[in-house]
Amino acid sequence: MTRSSKFRIDTSKTFPRLQNAPIVEAVIQWQVTPSANVTQDELKSALESQFGHYTLSAQHRVETGFSGPPDAIEMHHRSQWDGYRLTSTDEKYVCQWKPNTLAFSRLAPYENWQNLMMEVKPFWESFVELTATTTVERIGVRFISQIAIKRGERVSDFVQNIKPPLKGIGLRSESFLYQDTIPVESYPYKIRLVRAIQPAHPPLSTESSLIVDIDVFTVEPTSLNQLQFRLEEMRFLKNEVFFAFMKDAESKFE
Fold first, then answer.
1. How crowded is the C-beta side of 81, counted as CA atoms within 13 Å?
2. Mind giving me the DSSP string for 145-167?
3. C-alpha separations of 168 from 140, 154, 160, 172, 210 in Å
4. pLDDT at 199
5. What 3-state class would DSSP assign to 252?
6. Is residue 76 within 8 Å of residue 98, measured between CB atoms?
7. Residue 252 has pLDDT above 90, yes or no
8. Pick from 29, 22, 18, 211: which is nearest to 109 by CA?
9. What confidence tens digit (pLDDT) does each residue in 177-198 have?
10. Is 69 strand, coil or helix?
11. Contact between residue 208 and residue 149 where contact means Cβ atoms under 8 Å apart
12. Residue 226 in contact with residue 135, Cβ under 8 Å?
């Protein structure tokens, strides 16, 4: 038997542009080891100066702990500053800026990769300048899609290879959650593919939803001069997975 050729990334490959893409959130995330320490106030001043067209709010992480003897246990809460959240005027773009992480999201309706890159570019450039980083420890490109399953439709109408686990004994689940983590052989990436059914919750929602979450991330550090190249390869991977997993996406989301 002839062994199939290895998987190859081809960034020149084009994919259909979907007029009604089911993407509810597209996220690009960078995690670094900062070489410069910027105080909370210094960061706030810089962000207000550079991104005045975004609403700025502080983020806090709440930690809970317990202390004391078994018969008199006390619970303690501690709130710690955890960066800033910046939101565009139309609330479609959200940037979470933490001391070592920048996460930038586009909410529905998703436009296109070029617009996303154009909007995030000044944030990333400022993040590099303020953290004085030279290496990115981890890059993530994550696209989350949500498809309403209407009466008479089946999940198998939309995606490949999801089999009801108990169909053989006459039982069917109303929800599921599957997750696969796939290494990309010969490349510094892994792909996490999550498929889930979100049941209907009347009266808030009368239809169940299919969630398809494609998360592509690096598994080794990336230098700044490799960043654009890595992002283009990761974009290819998320598109390749989406169009391989979805059935007739071009006709269903035209």
1. 11
2. EEEEE-TT--GGGTBS----TTG
3. 39, 18, 19, 9, 23
4. 79
5. helix
6. no
7. no
8. 22
9. 889 999 999 999 999 999 998 8
10. coil
11. yes
12. no
Q: Where are the beta strands (DSSP E) in the chain?
A: 23-32, 54-67, 74-88, 93-97, 101-107, 135-149, 177-184, 189-198, 208-218, 222-223
Q: What is the DSSP string of 11-50?
A: TT---PPPTT--EEEEEEEEEE--SS---HHHHHHHHHHH
**pTM, rounded to two decimals:** 0.86
Question: Six-digit token pair at 225?
Answer: 């001069």
Q: What whole-number distance in Å separates Cα of residue 13 and Cα of residue 7?
A: 14
The pair phi, psi for residue 236, each rounded to 5°, is -60, -45
Output the furthest CA–CA distance in the chain (Å, rounded): 70
> Amino acid letter at 75?
M
Residue 240 main-chain phi, psi, to 5 deg: -60, -40
According to DSSP, the residues that pair with 246 across neighbouring strands are: 159
Residue 189 in contact with residue 217, Cβ under 8 Å? yes
Q: How far is the C-alpha of 44 from the C-alpha of 207, rounded, in Å?
A: 42
Beta-carbon contacts of 158 under 8 Å, excluding residues fewer than 6 positions away, are: 147, 149, 210, 246, 247, 252
Read off the DSSP letter of residue 6. P
Distance CA 144, CA 108 (A): 10
Rounded CA separation 219/234 (Å): 12
